[in-house]
Amino acid sequence: MPRAAVVLLSGGIDSATALAIARSDGYVCYALSVDYRQRHRFELRAAKKIAASMGVKQHRIIKLDPSVFGGSALTEEIAVPKFRPERQRSRTIPVTYVPGRNMVLLALALAWAETLGAGHIFIGVNALDYSGYPDCRPEFIGAFQGTANLGTRAGVEGRPIQIHAPLIRLTKADIIRKGSSLGVPFGRTHSCYDPDPRGRACGACDSCLIRKKGFIEAGIPDPTVYGGSERARG
Amino acid sequence: MPRAAVVLLSGGIDSATALAIARSDGYVCYALSVDYRQRHRFELRAAKKIAASMGVKQHRIIKLDPSVFGGSALTEEIAVPKFRPERQRSRTIPVTYVPGRNMVLLALALAWAETLGAGHIFIGVNALDYSGYPDCRPEFIGAFQGTANLGTRAGVEGRPIQIHAPLIRLTKADIIRKGSSLGVPFGRTHSCYDPDPRGRACGACDSCLIRKKGFIEAGIPDPTVYGGSERARG
Description:
2 copies of one chain form a homodimer.
Chain A: E1 4-8, H1 13-24, E2 28-35, H2 42-53, E3 58-63, H3 86-91, H4 101-116, E4 120-122, H5 138-150, H6 153-156, E5 162-164, H7 172-181, H8 206-218, H9 229-233
Parallel strand pairs in A: 1-2, 1-4, 2-3, 4-5
Helix pairs in contact in A: 1-7, 7-8
């Protein structure tokens, strides 16, 4: 078959851009979303819209017991920090770090890739804007690829699996420029860690701040409706 | 807290023995079972009995979408081979190989370990009797540990996570002897790939053959009731 790739698709800007890059590089794309978050399932709704509009071969949503990922503001009722200055964001591992997340996501992608006979996995991790996340670093991605090729039939039989992290050294502005040039429907993506009940972005969490700044620096209009921000202020 | 370990517990002889070793080495044990198999959920019932009788601190069963693991006789309706000669078993990757399984299981254990603050993970893999499984080899386990310590807060902050595979170089007979000396309730374990509807072992699949031979070589009576074997013959 033509080159096939499993693309991890969260519904945010980064994974949507990673999908656009995979497609533009000629891969037949199988999008994989993992449903584990108790607090913001709007991401998955976004992932469905993106997968549908970007012509993936198949979009699989795997349900995963949310208890797998404890200890994070994204999965537990810990307050999401608001309006944190950038310096503070980049110095520490954020409370939104989810223990083991990218290892689990890549492992699930690997299982599906090997079953499909796909030799490629795309993940939209980024080491610059998320410098505090240990599992967004190039050394982690490289080590995962090596481990995957030791632990799979594909790897052992000489059909190594390649992990692509095409955004890993890009800034958010670079990613937005790249995605925009490839036609990513940014209006359908979701970034906010703390949306209101209708799914509108708060405009104040780390993820919203990074997104807003990225659009400004890219010189591209931000299609996001920041409707939830009154809660952050009050 | 005292040394804490997450122990992957399938309900078979190997993982029960790995748990007994972890307990005997003084670890406070958190048992983790993953519910993904469509065909033989008797393993999970066994895992519950073992966890209860071996004094684990907590036993967590994670449900995982069975579609994650396609392409194996353990999860799909492919015939389980019966009465295969040993030479044939050990030369090829068996049809019971599940793509990406140990990577996914270890990733889930890692996520829980980091959340708990546990620095140890035990897995009952074995490179001798399952020589065809790429993800049962020491080089895979070692690579996973390295990747885990690059991709977690614990690893980055100097509290490395250690992956223990205490059975990796033992024969099945060695494992049975070791488990027996540590009081593993073998009568409660389940190995069969193709049990009858009441959960009785078939006595003819690779896993039953390895189990039977192990007890014989260990010189220890096999408490298993092989009730399902008429199906294998007929």
